[in-house]
Each structure stands twice: as structure tokens, then as C-alpha cells.
Design brief:
Number of helices: 4
Helix content: 25-40%
Oligomer: single chain
Protein name: Ig-like domain-containing protein
CATH topology of the largest domain: Immunoglobulin-like
Bound molecules: 2-acetamido-2-deoxy-beta-D-glucopyranose
Distance between the termini: 156 Å
InterPro entries: BTN3A2-like_Ig-C, Ig-like_dom, Ig-like_dom_sf, Ig-like_fold, Ig_sub, Ig_V-set, IgSF_BTN/MOG
CATH architecture of the largest domain: Sandwich
GO biological process, one term: regulation of leukocyte cell-cell adhesion
Strand order of the largest sheet: 2-11-10-5-6-7
Subcellular location: Membrane
Order of helices and strands: HEEEEEEEEEEEEEEEEEEEHHH
Structural class: alpha+beta
Number of domains: 3
CATH superfamily of the largest domain: Immunoglobulins
Radius of gyration: 49 Å
Largest sheet: 6 strands, mixed
GO molecular function, one term: signaling receptor binding
Length: 327
Amino acid sequence: MNSGLCLRVLILVALTVPIRAAQPAPVTFTLTVPDGPTSTLSGSSVSLLCEVSPLFNAEPLEVRWYRSSNFHSPALLYKDHKIQEAPVDPQYRGRVSLTGGLERGNVSLRLERVTQEDRGEYICQVTSDQWYEKASVFLTVNVTGSEPVLSVAEGRGGGGQVNVTCSSVGWSPQPKLTWRNKDGTEIRNGQEVLNTSDPQGLVSVSSWLLYAPSYSNWLSCTVSLSEEAKREGRILPHIYTAPTAVPGVSKEAFIVTLVLLVLFLVIGALCSVILCKRRGSMWSSSQKSRNRSETKNLIEGAENTVPKPTEQMVTGKEVNLAGKVIG
Ligand SMILES: *[C@@H]1O[C@H](CO)[C@@H](O)[C@H](O)[C@H]1NC(C)=O
Ligand SMILES: *[C@@H]1O[C@H](CO)[C@@H](O)[C@H](O)[C@H]1NC(C)=O
Ligand SMILES: *[C@@H]1O[C@H](CO)[C@@H](O)[C@H](O)[C@H]1NC(C)=O
Ligand SMILES: CC(=O)N[C@H]1CO[C@H](CO)[C@@H](O)[C@@H]1O
């Protein structure tokens, strides 16, 4: 019985202490907000922290959360002990709440289903009958980009090294790109990062690396903003060459050439067989004709060696020459 009573007293004390701490609003107060920007991942929820100082019960006060230029249509307006339906920015309807506990002086804004458009400055303004205070909180929205795409090309400048490229698009803010070998060791040399911003403010990142070709030791490329926002790609750093491919010639062209080549070979073989048969018969006939012409030459030669008496008188030298040629 005694221990039960003790527990009840303890619970009562635990309940009364925070209530006692929640003092009525002092005449003046300040607001406590984070020093740096608050970051969150696109699609998730975030709390924009804001507290009254000293801590007191903020329930009777007015709390207004608004974007810098949008005082009259705030993201959230708490007034007369309740969250007001209007006037509020429709962009935030159903996505905002005050979940920190106003009675404890926590006026933080809870924002759900964060989008890139939510990025920017938010002002937390708390107003009492005698006093008001405001402070700003900057929200950055991280966007995780695409899976890295890796490719291998021949490295320019020789040395037998391959040029490995890694690229990824759609990040915010600019991510960190890291190359690692199979053992997980970071590779720093021969690396160059290029980034371009697209109209939506998202960043593309790409890097290339000269590396000794390998068929077994993969290379990894990691693009990341944080542990939760990280993407990795892997590749074996070698150039893929199809066994039948000829550089600069398409597969179709290669097949057509191959078919034509085979066709030529077949036709060639057929032709040579036919020609061989023909040549065989032609050889025997030419032999006969050659024999015939030879006998004719002999007869003609004999005629020439016996010059006519008149020719000998006029051109004796010629006769001699002609005689030499024939001889
Ligand atoms: C957002 O990105 C920054 C790096 O640019 C990182 O420091 C921070 O932790 C990220 N926040 C979240 C919620 O991922
Ligand atoms: C205030 O409330 C937010 C939730 O909206 C919470 O994350 C934060 O820790 C609270 N601050 C304190 C000091 O309790
Ligand atoms: C490697 O490839 C990138 C393009 O992906 C190119 O800009 C770079 O000049 C190449 N480097 C060498 C040495 O081949
Ligand atoms: C090479 C290049 O374009 N670098 C830029 C990458 O993006 C940052 C800001 O996001 C710029 O400061 C760099 O100049």
C-alpha cells in the first residue's frame, strides 16, 4: 500500500512540476532559434525549432509562422487558443502543426511532406498583449539524385589506361563524389569533378578517372549528401569488345560483308574449276598451232637467205644485217 501511495505522489509531482514551470507570459521575452539552417530530405518531415525565452505557457499568445514576404498569408497562424483556418497559404494546408507543446513554450513548426519549394526563410513571430518578438529559421531541402551511370572508354594519351566516367543528375545541394577501389580505399588521383545546375536548381555531377584496366577488380563511384542521401554505382574497368566486331563497322554491315565474301569465294571456286577444264583442252590445240607456225618460219627464213641479185647490188649491208638476225 505504502509503495503504491509513494508512486502516486511521484506521478503527481511529475505532472505538477512542468505546469508550475509554465509561468504566465512575462512582460517581455525573446525567441530561441537554431544558429544555422535546418536541413531535411525532400519528401520527409521537419521541425523548424522556435522557443520562447524564458519558458512560459504560450497558449494565450498568437503564433505566426510565415515566409519572409508573406506575412498576411502565413504558413500557420495560431490565435485565440486555436490554429486558424484562414488566412493561410494554401501551399501549406494540411501539412503544418504545432506539436512541440505550446504550454511548455515550444512554438516549433512541424512541416510534413517537404518539397523543394518549401526551401527558404521562415519567420517565427510570437505576440502577447504587451510584446511581440520574431526570429528566422532557414530551411534547406536536400534532393537525392539519380543512380550514378558509369562508362569506360579508351584513355587518351596512351599508357594502356582506361578512362572511367561516373555521372549523376538531380541533386540539391551539390553532392560529394567519391571513387573507391574493390577494397573500399578512396582513389583521389586523376579526378576532376564538373557540375552544372539545371533550371530547377538541381545539380549534376560528373567525374572521370584514368585507371589500369581490370576484369576482376571493380571500381565504385559514390555520390552523396549524407548517410541517408547516398547512391553508388560499380563497374569493371575494361573496354568491352565483341569477338566479331570490327571497330567503326556495324554488325549488319559486317554480316553483309561476310555473306558477300563467302559468295565470292564460292563463285571463285566454281570459276577456277571451269577454267581449269577449258585450259586443258586449249593447251593441246595451241601446241598443234605452234608446231605449224614454226615450220612456216623455217621456210620463210630459207627464202630470205637467198637474196635476189638486184637487191644485193644496192643494199649489201642490209642483207648482211638481215642475215645476222635470221642466223
Ligand atoms: C543535407 O546535405 C548536407 C550536405 O550538403 C548535409 O550536411 C546534411 O546532413 C543533409 N541533410 C539531410 C537531412 O540529409
Ligand atoms: C520542440 O518541439 C519539436 C517538435 O515540433 C521538438 O522536435 C523539439 O525537440 C522541441 N524542443 C524542445 C526544447 O523540447
Ligand atoms: C575521359 O573522358 C572524359 C569524358 O567522359 C573526357 O572529358 C576526358 O578528356 C577523357 N580523358 C582522357 C585522358 O581520355
Ligand atoms: C566546375 C563547376 O562548374 N563548379 C561549380 C559547381 O557548383 C558550385 C556551386 O554549386 C560552384 O561554386 C562551382 O563553381
